[in-house]
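Example 9 (inverse folding). The structure is encoded as follows.
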């Protein structure tokens, strides 16, 4: 996957150098930074997408909807899985509903 393809999947990040959202928009800022990190990792690490894909395609019962929804294109599920893992690391008490609201 190219960075340009990944940006097309992003909801908040559009290739900007700095977050365009006001710091009061905490969710938008958090997701923007996560999407930006995903794209930056794609630039720097040729194996990054494949590792994320392997993780995302594990047993669907390990993931909540929409992460296990086969109707969502695979590349979008890979991005969502990365964001969920990032979210669960930095905001472990928010629960699954945050990624569902993404």
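The amino acid assigned to each position is listed next.
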């Amino acid at each position: 996957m190219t960075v340009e393809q990944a940006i097309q999947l992003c909801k908040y990040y559009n290739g900007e150098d700095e977050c365009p959202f006001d710091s009061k928009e905490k969710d938008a800022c958090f997701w923007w930074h996560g999407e930006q990190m995903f794209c930056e990792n794609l630039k720097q690490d040729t194996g990054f997408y494949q590792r994320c894909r392997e993780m995302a395609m594990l047993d669907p019962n390990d993931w909540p909807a929409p992460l296990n929804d086969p109707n969502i294109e695979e590349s979008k599920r890979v991005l969502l899985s990365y964001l969920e893992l990032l979210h669960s690391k930095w905001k472990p008490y928010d629960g699954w509903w945050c990624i569902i609201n993404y």
